[in-house]
Amino acid sequence: MSDEQQKTKDEMIAKANQAVKKVAHEFVGGLNQRVEDLEKAILTNDRNAAVEMAYNLETEAATFGWPRVTRICKWLRKIFSGDYDQKPDAEDVLKTLNALKLMVADPGNPDEVRDEELFRKIYPAMQKVVTDI
Amino acid sequence: MSDTEKPKNIKNLKILIVDSNVFIAKTLYSILEAFGVRKIMLSHTLDEAEKMYYSAEIDCVFVDFMMENRTGIEFIKTLRTKPGEKNDQKLTIILNTGLTDRDTIFMARDAGVTEVISKPFSPDQVLSKLENAVNNPRAFIEIDEFVVPDRRRRRPNKKEWSGENDRRSYSAKKNSE
């Protein structure tokens, strides 16, 4: 590849990265509402909706740099699609949901230290249910 | 469309994005737009996507598997098995999915996807998959009315295109120096 071609390619990637940042900003704006919708689907036992919402949030959070939200949503998707190693306790599901809600309560100002602590607390129960989480 | 007729520049591709996830679809749209792709269509439902596919000329479809209760895979099969009047069955289908377990990938391959991009994806991954689809299209196997890309991407006298930084071309270059 010539220097000129490489430069063009780099410019395309840089422009695309900027475009992704704009979408990420929009994503953050609606994050807590999305988690509320997910909670509603779970509490009304709408499993299909819960799986789809958790999957969508999981992939979006992974794309836009929210790793803990990604893993919690992956866990929720797995348990509501029946892909778990041990049946989860309702209490653990609620605890995980509450942690998720707290993590996205003010998505514009995420508190990394608090979120890490919250995640460490819920992780053993999550891992008991889905071992490869 | 035969291999030789395919546009070589990704900017000339006509792309359909099918994803119920608004943000992921928007992200992909923005990435392709930033690459200079001029014709991008977007659909959030499979019904609408099918209508779009049969009413316009499309070179490449990005689709998620987990749409409408996992029926994204059925959509891919439809594109591969239904003889299209305006479209060729040998189009590039790229599955963009968050599920990368063995079963899902095998299922997608058997349904006829050309490439798989796992979510989360980055602009350079999208570019590399698209360039690969354009520069090194797979051969197709036709069984009755089912047309699928060859799983092995084995083409005589043409090695797999894996980007400019392929370790094999790098070592070959290094050895010749």
Q: Largest chain interface and its two residue counts?
A: A-B, 25 and 23 residues
Measured distance between first and last alpha carbons of chain B: 41 Å
Sketch the major β-sheet of chain A: none
Overall 3D form of chain A: elongated
Proportion of residues in extended strands of chain B:
15-25%
> What is Rg of chain A?
17 Å
Output mean pLDDT of chain B: 79
- Number of alpha- plus pi-helical segments of chain A: 6
Provide structural commentary.
- The complex is a heterodimer of chains A (133) and B (177).
- Chain A has 6 helices and no strands.
- With 133 residues, chain A is mostly helical.
- Chain A is elongated, with a radius of gyration of 17 Å.
- The model of chain A has no long low-confidence stretch (mean pLDDT 92).
- Chain B has 6 helices and 7 strands, in the order βαβαβαβαβαββα.
- The longest helix of chain B has 13 residues.
- The radius of gyration of chain B is 16 Å and the shape is globular.
- In chain B, 38% of the residues are buried.
- Chains A and B meet through helix 1 and helix 3 of A and helix 1 and helix 5 of B.
